[in-house]
Amino acid sequence: MNLDELLLPDRVHRRLYTDPAIYDEEMRTLFRRAWIYVGHESEVRHVGDYKRAKIGSEPVILVRGEDEAVRVLVNRCLHRGALVCREEKGNGKFFRCPYHAWTYRNNGELMGVPKRSRYPRDFDLGRLGLVNVPRVESYRGLVFACFDDDIEPLIDYLGPVRNYVDATLDFSLSGEIDLSVGVSRHRYPGNWKLQMENGVDGYHTAFVHETYIGIMSRAEEVELKFGSHGEDQGWTETFPRGHAVLARRADPRAIDVLRGQFPEYTSALEAKHGSERLLEILAHMNVFVFPNLFLIGHQIRVVQPVSVAETEVMMYPYLLAGAPEALNLKRMAEHEGFYPPTGFGTPDDYEVFSAVTEGLQAMSTPWLLLNRGAHDYQDLGDGVRRGTPTDEIHQRAMYTEYARLMGSGSRGGEA
Ligand code: FES
Ligand SMILES: [Fe+2]
């Protein structure tokens, strides 16, 4: 699809958020050419464990087979199209289609069909297994899948953003996390890319989340230096393939504060990583892996497109495997304060997404501007660029990768 006229280096056109034909093309092209996060290994720890996910609009099942291999199967019966798995997660040896009971092993093979004798002689069960998504790889327990056989290895696709993924997950002393606490799902009326842009947007924080910041400051629970209030303490970085981070340095006293509450755990973290790296681990980071995965605070967040103007957001708060229970409880309480539908933060973001969706009905004014900081950023080499927290350097990087995957060749610009 040629989107050259809709994607300029410093702006994007409203049709990217409103045109069903562009949405269909994203599902057909972008989501099939990128590594898409489908779940965490802790969700399919045991043989037979499965969970449902999506790759764009394509329903899939992440499952650990009898041979212990983790596969991603397309959740679509080869007979006449029903989902073969309707539970969100579970454990089982096979999937039985709810319609005519064709039954598949959990490696995708078709085991049997009822009343088989009425099929012609050349009916071959061996050719009617569930489609296996051809590429499945994981990084630090995060499982990604891709329909494009030729995509680069996941580790190269992630590239230098791995430093921030590692820093986020290394708050777990064992290096492992556990997603067994569940998921909080929400929907908002608007295009999925609004959440993609917003998850690392430091410009809106001081305004959209003003109430939250006010309450927390009065409660003196935390020293808040959000967004434009903390310009000197924060930064954004963009990476090849559209990944990005919005980060704020930890207060130098953060290690001592943590030590006051969890002395043994803190000393063990410090012994493992050194105090300099531990301060990086304690920084506030919103990490974005293109096109629809975030690691924010204490959660893994998946942005799931539903239609051109509807999006589902799944937030999976996670536990630090092996950490003191009190630390995990504290993290869950912090998560609950801001992120779920009852929290202080997320509903405000969804309110502005609806305001944008309605505003974009204005055909007289087609462009969304993404040029903050376009004149002034640091080039750190290897495709890594750095700007201030309120710049739009990350959104520009996202749309550069977006254009590449959508087959739109001529998008220029610095990031
Ligand atoms: S659609 Fe699955 S058995 Fe008929
Ligand atoms: Fe926000």
UniProtKB/TrEMBL annotation:
InterPro entries: ARHD_Rieske_2Fe_2S (IPR015881), Rieske_2Fe-2S (IPR017941), Rieske_2Fe-2S_sf (IPR036922), Ring_hydroxy_dOase_asu_C_dom (IPR015879), Rng_hydr_dOase-A (IPR001663). Residues 36-133 form the Rieske domain. Pfam families: Rieske, Ring_hydroxyl_A. PROSITE patterns: RIESKE, RING_HYDROXYL_ALPHA. One of its GO terms (molecular function) is monooxygenase activity. Keywords: 2Fe-2S, Dioxygenase, Iron, Iron-sulfur, Metal-binding, NAD, Oxidoreductase. Transmembrane segments: none annotated. Gene3D superfamilies: Naphthalene 1,2-dioxygenase Alpha Subunit, Chain A, domain 1, Rieske [2Fe-2S] iron-sulphur domain. Belongs to the bacterial ring-hydroxylating dioxygenase alpha subunit family. This is Rieske 2Fe-2S domain-containing protein. It comes from Streptomyces bathyalis.
